[in-house]
Amino acid sequence: MVEKLKENARKGRTSRKDIVYFYFVHNDTVFHKLKNLSRGGIKKLDIKKNDCFEMRVVKNDYGIFDIDFKKKKDTLIDKRKYRVQKYNTIIHRYIIE
After folding, report:
1. How far apart (Å, rounded) are the C-alpha atoms in residues 43 and 5?
2. Which end of the chain offers a freer environment for a tag, N or C, measured as fewer CB atoms within 10 Å?
3. What is the pTM of this model?
């Protein structure tokens, strides 16, 4: 489930990228992650806030995942129902909230 989009963010001094902030639920825990796309990738794939996509996650490491931005789901996941929220960093949490 996409929760925030950041287009044309700085990657370094000269290059830029698009960032998709998203979350998924596993065992009553919400995992907040981000995916870097090439510049213009959000518009090219027509990604909007609150879109839900099919994804695969490695069982042993939730940091390894693959999102298929071409397969949208008609699902709505409300993250407020879950008590445990896991973010990459404190900064990531502040950006989302």
Report:
1. 11
2. C
3. 0.84
